[in-house]
Specification:
Keywords: Cell membrane, Membrane, Transmembrane, Transmembrane helix, Transport. The chain is built from 16 helices and no strands. It is an all-alpha fold.
């Protein structure tokens, strides 16, 4: 919701601030900058202060900043609050899923991680459904809704979450440049912690870019399509969890997901070439994107069995995921500007091919 509250009313925000497109792009993406730069450092702070304490701190910070943004402050101050908001976002997306994994049985963890992976789709669907009521009240209404939401979540956590679920290491590590460098080496030196994030970067490069550029492929389509795509991706994420519950290994589920995405984009390319109406083909591709997301998150507890390892894996996902969502739209923009629809479809086909190679090649090495 820290992204969606800006993304959905972005045209109205641009008018209010009399801002350029590049400035509005910064307002939207600034939250992700912290994750791209500092995600791998979070584990050091977690091991020092604890999961529960940091989660509460991040939720409190996010709530305060959300209420500040309700005032629609001047652009420099808004950008500053968005950058600090990125700190809260980063801590939440590392601590919350790790605690969720700790709160359930080992055989439930891949399904629970797939459930966690639906947060983007849930948010955009929810705010998209509420937009007809929020938009007439002005752009501030989106910020008010988010501020109230964060306040309610903070109170619920305080009431329901009294003790930490994960024991901290003894002695607790000191926060230093040396420990932060060692943390990076540990995360990116183990395929069990880094493989999900390597796959995830191909997903985020696709998902964020296609939400932007899909209307340029064969026309925007009917009005229901933009609202339906996030919902369909939710169904795909739950589908990945269901496959794991049926007995398929998370690594195998990821192969199925990337293979399905490749087939879906190939069919979309053929349909586009034939001049067919593309709405349902686009729906199918977003289902496979959800399948990819759910399967990747499901790999985390399967490959990294200890909470500390899981936190490291999620940190890598946050870092490379933000990198993917940062480089994806410009890449697709260049491809569209140079080769038109062919460029978008070509890049869309390339991403699942890369992901499929990564998961097949490296999961075999892990099995051996």
């Amino acid at each position: 919701m820290q992204f969606a509250k800006v993304s959905l009313p972005i045209d109205e925000l641009q008018t209010y601030y009399d801002a350029s497109l590049s400035e509005m792009g910064l307002v939207l993406s600034w939250v992700g900058v912290c994750g791209m730069v500092f995600a791998a450092c979070v584990s050091v702070f977690i091991n020092r202060f604890g999961y529960r304490r940091l989660l509460f701190l991040a939720m409190f910070l996010a709530t305060v900043l959300a209420w500040v943004q309700v005032l629609l402050p001047p652009m420099p101050l808004l950008l500053a609050t968005r950058l600090i908001e990125g700190v809260s976002h980063l801590i939440i997306v590392v601590t919350a899923p790790t605690l969720m994994a700790a709160a359930c049985r080992a055989d439930q963890r891949s399904m629970v991680m797939s459930l966690w992976g639906t947060f983007f789709g849930v948010t955009f669907s929810l705010l998209g459904a509420l937009s007809p009521w929020l938009m007439p009240m002005g752009v501030t209404s989106f910020f008010v809704f988010h501020a109230l939401w964060m306040l309610v979540m903070l109170v619920l956590l305080a009431l329901m979450f009294r003790t930490d679920l994960i024991a901290l290491p003894h002695p607790r590590p000191q926060i230093s440049i040396k420990n932060i460098i060692e943390q990076h080496v540990q995360i990116y030196g183990q395929m069990r912690t880094v493989l999900p994030s390597l796959c995830f970067i191909t997903y985020t490069a696709l998902y964020v870019a296609l939400l932007t550029f899909f209307p340029k492929v064969g026309g925007a389509g009917p009005d229901w399509l933009r609202a339906a795509l996030p919902l369909v991706s939710l169904a795909g994420a739950f589908g990945a969890g269901a496959l794991v519950q049926k007995g398929l290994k998370p690594t195998q589920t990821t192969v199925v997901a990337f293979g399905s995405a490749l087939v879906a984009f190939l069919v979309l390319a053929v349909a586009c070439q034939q001049g067919l109406e593309l709405s349902w083909f686009k729906v199918a591709t977003f289902f496979t994107l959800g399948l990819m997301q759910g399967a990747i998150y499901g790999m985390i507890p399967y490959l990294a069995t200890q909470p500390a390892q899981q936190a490291q894996s999620i940190s890598a996902i946050a870092q490379l995921g933000n990198l993917g969502s940062t480089i994806g739209p410009p890449l697709f923009g260049i491809a569209f500007g140079t080769w038109g629809t062919t460029g978008i479809l070509g890049l869309s086909l390339l991403m699942p091919v890369i992901g499929l190679f990564l998961i097949v090649y490296f999961s075999r090495k892990l099995d051996n």
